[in-house]
Amino acid sequence: ESVDLGPYQHYMQKEIFEQPRAIGDTLANISSFGPELFHADVSEWNQFDQILILACGTSYYSACVAKYWLEDIAGIPTQVEVASEYRYRTSVPNVKTLIVVVSQSGETADTLAALRHAKALGHSYTLSICNVGSSAMVRETKWSFLTKAGTEIGVASTKAFTTQLVALYLLAVSLSKRAGRMTPESEKQLLRELRHLPKALHAVLALEPQIIAWSNAFVKCENALFLGRGMHYPIALEGALKLKEISYIHAEAYPAGELKHGPLALVTEKMPVVTVAPKDELLEKLKSNMQEVKARGGKLYVFADQDTDIVSDEGIHVIRLPEHYGNLSPILHVVPLQLLAYHTACMLGTDVDKPRNLAKSVTVE
Ligand code: G6P
Asked: Active site at which residues (predicted)?
């Protein structure tokens, strides 16, 4: 842990603010999409027709976002499974599946065992998305993509998560190209959007003072609910995980459409409800979910986009992200949730970089 903290109080804060650099580095030298990004052989690259992603913890949530991208952008059937479940259940292998393991460390025991299990079942197309090039997962998969987050010290993963999302997005657009869904113009446009990410992230990080103000309310809470829809539902899950990991506040995430099937019973004026509300095709549906919360006295904390008509009012607080980012939106919308968890934990005085009972890398079962 000799990495210099610089102006930051904790490694987690430093790592949150390093995300523009980490994503810029992960994208460096990429000028087109395709199998070469994953060190894959073209003839084999054309063989698989479905995907199974295996991961744990925060890496599992990046995989959950990727399922939306892979099915929507590339049209390839995709499943995501928690590694510790997959390795111990009877599954029906289809050898035309690409097995993807996602892991910051590349050493997580459950994910590694799940990879070995998949190979024992006859799967030969295997890809690792890892932050450590010398790791067991990179060695044991046929193909690999290395994220360039740099050493991550904070137990609660931040820059590793967003760089995993970038890698998984590159997989989705590369498979979209394989499917003949991309023109040279659309490829150039997607590259421009990706290269804009570091700048867009800086603008989101500049929201920190507003988020610190919200943290003052969260320190008084025992519970919090996080809502999202579509590809932002896993972002709500990740926001809830960050809050519980480092602040020890009980937090749960739901896809907003499920509110009426249970969690609405928990909503009172004591329940903050964090809502991830980008300006996408699900926004109108989400607004009616927010109305259900408001009608029960719940306090809404909404992360919206710039050109939205959601405004702060009695019982509803709104922070606007500076742009709408289209398919890349999950990479931006997770950042304020990281900051909210971080500042809430700081105010509560927890050991932010080393939360109780948790380890950075779980290399035993
Ligand atoms: C531990 C860490 C988490 C991490 C998970 C998976 O639980 O505390 O932050 O997301 O392991 O780790 P990996 O290295 O496989 O991404």
From this structure: 360
